[in-house]
Specification:
This protein is of the alpha/beta class. The chain has helices at residues 19-33, 49-57, 68-77, 87-100, 114-124, 137-152, 161-172, and strands at residues 4-11, 37-44, 61-63, 81-85, 105-109, 155-158, 177-179. It is 47% helix and 19% strand.
Length: 187
């Protein structure tokens, strides 16, 4: 059976605008070069024609919403693996993939740990009406949702060993997370 990969993200891989998109574009290129058939789906593909063209030139099937055409692709795609960028995209897509393509292995690419970034922001800066050093119920709810998504996945990709260890400690035990650092081209 052909190896097929699905990558889902909030936006198209705008590799020339920000690091998370560069990381996703690197995944597309790596998988394509390794002989995988790659499909890319985004929640919001508006105004991204040049990125759509770039993906399609590489033979990447592209969906610009998570609507009906995307769901049809899930049900007939027989994907070997799905890489879901960010926990909140995984929260949205993971149940659909499990339902429509139950044999697909699901990896969540944390790109960065939102609960960690948000805790640092809350603990070291003061916000509207709150003193530095306090976490609120909204923070707690989001952290629980993020960790639940990681625990529901077959694996989690982290950019550092420190983040991978933290994910394993909080969401799944040893072996849930894998370190996949960013590919930075340094002059």
């Amino acid at each position: 059976m052909a190896r097929r990969a699905l990558i889902c993200a909030p936006l198209l891989p705008e590799y020339d605008r920000e690091g998370g998109s560069r990381r996703l574009f690197d995944f597309v290129e790596f998988l394509s070069e390794a002989g995988w058939s790659v499909t890319f789906a985004t929640r919001n593909g508006s105004n991204g024609e040049r990125y759509i063209d770039l993906l399609q030139q590489r033979g990447v099937e592209t969906y610009t919403t998570f609507g009906s055409p995307f769901e049809r692709a899930l049900s007939v795609g027989q994907f070997s693996i799905a890489i879901l960028a960010f926990w909140y995209i995984a929260e949205e897509c993971l149940p659909r993939i499990r339902r429509l393509s139950p044999h697909t292995r699901i990896m969540v690419d944390s790109i960065d740990l939102h609960f960690l970034r948000n805790a640092r922001r809350a603990l070291y800066t003061s916000g509207e009406g709150s003193a530095p050093g306090s976490l609120d119920a909204t923070y707690g709810s989001e952290m629980v949702r993020e960790l639940n998504v990681y625990a529901a996945a077959d694996g989690v990709l982290a950019v550092s060993a420190k983040e991978a260890t933290l994910i394993d400690d909080l969401a799944g035990g040893p072996g849930l997370s894998y370190v996949v650092p960013d590919c930075e081209e340094i002059e």
